[in-house]
Amino acid sequence: MFWLSRLDATSTYAGGVLGPLLISGTGVGLALVAHNLVVVTETDHSEAGAAAGVLQATLTLGGAIGLAALVTVFQAAGAGLAAGVAATFTAATVIMAAALLLRNPQPRVRQSSHS
């Protein structure tokens, strides 16, 4: 995201957009698959379908709220397309950094049902 926040009116697709999109697309693709696997495999088998449904609903709602927030930033920038895009990706970078700092890195210990 930080790389995309450096775009300006003279940026080219190959020089300013392609690289970050390849990196973020690969990272998001790998992360979402891993996240889905963790949610489904760490949930009791009888509740795996509900957990997957809640996960997908949460991802969709989060995406909609995030998009609304970033469109608001773009609109508020109001200084042209390039400035709006740079402001939007800067805001996305700040949001991602905050999410990384606020996450709970301690894994949850699963209770065994075979006692």
Structure description:
This protein has 115 residues and is mostly helical. It is built from four helices and no strands. The protein has helices at residues 2-5, 13-41, 48-77, 81-102. The longest helix has 30 residues, at 48-77.
Top keywords for this entry?
single chain; 115 residues; mainly alpha; 4 helices; elongated
Give the count of helical stretches.
Answer: 4
DSSP, total strands: 0
Contiguous runs where pLDDT drops below 50 for at least 5 residues: none
Largest β sheet strand count, sense and barrel closure? none
SSE inventory with pairings:
Elements: H1 2-5, H2 13-41, H3 48-77, H4 81-102
Quick structural summary:
With 115 residues, the protein is mainly α.
